[in-house]
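Researcher: We're teaching a course module on how sequence relates to structure. For the next exercise, students receive a sequence and then see the predicted structure as C-alpha cells, so they can try to spot secondary structure elements on their own. Here is the exercise chain.
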Amino acid sequence: QVQPVESGGGSVQAGGSLRLSCAASGVDISNYYMGWFRQAPGKEREGVGMISKAGVQWYADPVRGRFTISRDNAKNTLYLQMSSLKPEDTAMYSCAAASSISWNLPVDPIQYQYWGQGTQVTVSS
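Model: And here is the predicted structure for the students to work with:
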C-alpha cells in the first residue's frame, strides 16, 4: 500500500519561500508519476505540477517559474520548492502517485491513485 506523507507546510509572508516534502512508504517513487496538488477553501483541487518516472517536470501556469519539483530516489521523497509565494498560493497541498498518466492532462487528479493527507500553506500579504 502506497502511503504518501507530506510535511513542511506553514505560514510565510508574501515573497517568501517554503519547501514541502512528501515521503512515500510502501513503494519506490521512481516507479510512479508523482504530482503535487492544492486546494483552497471553497475551491476545487488543482494540479500544481508533476514529475515523471524519467524526471521530466510539468507545471501549471500559476506556479511555473516559481515552484520546482524534485525527487530524491535514495530517500524515496518528493519535494516542492516554492518561491516568490503569493497570498493566492494559500491552500492545502497534497502529493499523489500515479502508475500512468496522459500527457494531455498530466495533473488530472483522477489519474492519481495514492494520496497523502496534505500540509497547509498560508501566505500572508
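Model: If you want an answer key for the exercise: Residues 1 and 90 are 30 Å apart (CA to CA). The chain has a mean pLDDT of 95.
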